[in-house]
Every structure is written in structure tokens, then in C-alpha cells.
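Quick review question:
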């Protein structure tokens, strides 16, 4: 025992080693960076959220009050996401995706009672939680981004064309389940986000260009597989572009009313009272949800619409700047996936409102009514802020340096 005891360091030596050990740990510990471009995204998201509450109040004051409560909960949830350690997010990525896939399957089960899963307009997307409805596809989008970031950071197989099969295969699972609900708009968001993430992870541009070209050629072949109402919406858009108004009282009514109200706002807007009367008497469907941008343009005019688009651009720019300044591969990919998904969603919503894209049931991020959508959007912002706040550690693996 005395021989073994002599091998342990003396108390004086242990004391002398403590400062060096603490110094070594500090070199590996993450540090906080308060001067991050991620705050631009926070400012933009807050502006869009406040605009959403105000524009919803144009026609439905009680619903606007509920949206304001959802906003408080959403900001608190986003704050929690911002301070979560990165290792927790990586460990929770796969369990969260599996849970969201199970929930997506649950809403599709035929035996689930309608009081629990409420069908709306032929879609089964929502789970009734009593105080609000929960949309599993919102959780699936966040979990999928985390899984893709965790997967792509550890491997460079995606730099070959066959290596892209794995991330595309993982993406196909939630995409197909959301499409079956049916929710064509939300399912399409996975595609631009995936392309942006694999590009940021070092995928070769010629491989991605080939896949995009194949998708563009194959897209018309998917037309017969669409549901009847989805095909009719595409037909209505084509007829509208040609100047044919035969769908304006049928499947094209929503698009026609949205464009009419957006144009009624002029340059500076019709004001609150007149906008309320115009929206009510024109019978715009889903004015608080899918068509909320039409109410924005009616109430605040072209300038208001441009301000909303500018806030989305500011959010996108802040996110991309955050990704560019991050040396952590996981964090960089998370931000790229989130920003591309939010930007794509906003583009589709504005495009279908002004009549250049078919109606897909896509909401406008942060602006449209919905508790689960608002909370999920602020969770994404929280993840972006978390990446921006964490300074790179002194000893850290390089980010995507391939031979």
C-alpha cells in the first residue's frame, strides 16, 4: 500500500496543477458572443409577429388576442432553445424526428376520433390539445433540420452523387407523410432546405444541378398523381394567367379575392376601417391564415407589403451572416436549413397571394394565425440565436474542409 500511495501526487503538486487544469478546460469551453448578426433575425421576427397580431385584429379581435398570448409563449420557448447546449440538440435530434414521424402517422390513422384529430378542408394535420391545436409537421421540420445537420457534419459522402441518396432518403420519410395529410405546401419546404444544407456542407454544384434538372423535368409527370383539388388549383392559375375567369367563382375564388383586396390597398393602404369592410364584404377565405398577406396589402398598401418582405429579407440576411461567421459545422448547417425553410415559406405564401403561384395552403411565417406555427417559428429563431451566441472554441475541428 505504501508503494502504491507513493505514486499519487502530493497535495502541493495537486494544488499547483489546478490552475493549469482550469486553464485547459477554458480553452475548450464555448464562449458567449453577444455581438452576433443573429439579432437581426430576432428584430425581424418580432416585427413580423407584431404585424401579424395587428393585421389579424383587422377582422377578428378575439383571435388577435389569442395570437398575442401565443407570441409570449413562443418568445419564451425560443429563448430556451437559444441557451440549450449544442450537444443536447445533437443528442435530441433523432429522438425528436422519430417522435414527430410517429405523430405524423398518428394523425393519419383512420380510427382516431375527430375530437382529437380535427379534419379541416379535407386535411388531417392537427391534434386537439384543448387550449390550442398542435401540428406535428411543425415539429417534424425542426427535428429534420437537426438530424440533417448532425448527419452531414460527420460525413463527406454527400460530395458524391450516390452519397446524396442517404440525406434524400431520410428527407423522403417526413416529406411523404406530410404530403399524405395532405399538406402539399409544407411538404415542399423540405426540398429547398435540403438543397441549401447539402450545398453548405460541400456537395458538388454539378450534382445538385443535375438533381434539380431531373426534378424539373419529372414535375409535370406528377400532375396526374395530385389530388383533384390540387390539379384544379393549378388549372385555375393557368386560366388566370391567360385571362380566363371561369374559375373565379369556384376553385379560383380565394386567389381572385386575395388579388382584388391586395390591389385595393393601393400604394399606402386603405386604412383599418375600410380594410375591414373590404375584407368582410369580399368574403376572403382564410384571411387570418393563408391569405393574411392580402389583408396586409389591403390595409397598408404596397408599402406595407414591401415592409413585410423586407423583414423577411432582413431575417434571411441575419441568418446567413450568422452561418458564415460560425466555424461549427453543426450550427452552420442548422442555421442554413432554418433560414432557407423560412424564406421559401414566405416566398410561396406571397407568391400565391399575388397570383404567381397556385394556392397551396401555405402560411406566412410569424404573421399568420396559429399557435403551433408561431411557437415553431420562434424555436427556429432561438436555434439561430444560439448558434450566433456561441463563439468558436479555440481547439475545434475545421468546418467542411475537404481535400
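Suggested answer, residue by residue:
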Amino acid at each position: 500500500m505504501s508503494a502504491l500511495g507513493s505514486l499519487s501526487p502530493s497535495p502541493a503538486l495537486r494544488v499547483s496543477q489546478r490552475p493549469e487544469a482550469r486553464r485547459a478546460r477554458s480553452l475548450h469551453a464555448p464562449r458567449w458572443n453577444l455581438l452576433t448578426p443573429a439579432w437581426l433575425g430576432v428584430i425581424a421576427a418580432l416585427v413580423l409577429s407584431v404585424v401579424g397580431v395587428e393585421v389579424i385584429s383587422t377582422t377578428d379581435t378575439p383571435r388577435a388576442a389569442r395570437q398575442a398570448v401565443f407570441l409570449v409563449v413562443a418568445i419564451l420557448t425560443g429563448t430556451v432553445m437559444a441557451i440549450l447546449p449544442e450537444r443536447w440538440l445533437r443528442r435530441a435530434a433523432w429522438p425528436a424526428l422519430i417522435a414527430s414521424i410517429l405523430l405524423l402517422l398518428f394523425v393519419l390513422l383512420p380510427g382516431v376520433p375527430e375530437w382529437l384529430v380535427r379534419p379541416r378542408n379535407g386535411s388531417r394535420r392537427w391534434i386537439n390539445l384543448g387550449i390550442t391545436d398542435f401540428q406535428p409537421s411543425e415539429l417534424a421540420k425542426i427535428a429534420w433540420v437537426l438530424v440533417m445537420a448532425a448527419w452531414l457534419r460527420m460525413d463527406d459522402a454527400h460530395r458524391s452523387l450516390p452519397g446524396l441518396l442517404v440525406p434524400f432518403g431520410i428527407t423522403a420519410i417526413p416529406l411523404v407523410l406530410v404530403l399524405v395529410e395532405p399538406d402539399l405546401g409544407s411538404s415542399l419546404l423540405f426540398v429547398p432546405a435540403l438543397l441549401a444544407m447539402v450545398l453548405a456542407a460541400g456537395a458538388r454544384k454539378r450534382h445538385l444541378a443535375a438533381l434539380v434538372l431531373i426534378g424539373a423535368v419529372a414535375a409535370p409527370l406528377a400532375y396526374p398523381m395530385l389530388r383533384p383539388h390540387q390539379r384544379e388549383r393549378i388549372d385555375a392559375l393557368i386560366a388566370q394567367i391567360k385571362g380566363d375567369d371561369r374559375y373565379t367563382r369556384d376553385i379560383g375564388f380565394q386567389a381572385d379575392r386575395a388579388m382584388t383586396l391586395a390591389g385595393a390597398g393601393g400604394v399606402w393602404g386603405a386604412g383599418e376601417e375600410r380594410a375591414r369592410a373590404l375584407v368582410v364584404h369580399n368574403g376572403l377565405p382564410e384571411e387570418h391564415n393563408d391569405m393574411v398577406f392580402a389583408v396586409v396589402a389591403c390595409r397598408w398598401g404596397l408599402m406595407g407589403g414591401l415592409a413585410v418582405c423586407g423583414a423577411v429579407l432582413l431575417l434571411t440576411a441575419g441568418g446567413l451572416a450568422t452561418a458564415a461567421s460560425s466555424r461549427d459545422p453543426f450550427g452552420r448547417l442548422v442555421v442554413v436549413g432554418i433560414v432557407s425553410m423560412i424564406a421559401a415559406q414566405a416566398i410561396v405564401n406571397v407568391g400565391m397571394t399575388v397570383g404567381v403561384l397556385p394556392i397551396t395552403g401555405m402560411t406566412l411565417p410569424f404573421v399568420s394565425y396559429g399557435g403551433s406555427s408561431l411557437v415553431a417559428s420562434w424555436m427556429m429563431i432561438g436555434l439561430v440565436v444560439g448558434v450566433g451566441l456561441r463563439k468558436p472554441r479555440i481547439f475545434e475541428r475545421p468546418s467542411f474542409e475537404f481535400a
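Why it works: Strands lie at 31-32, 117-120, 123-128, 133-134, 390-391. The longest strand covers residues 123-128.
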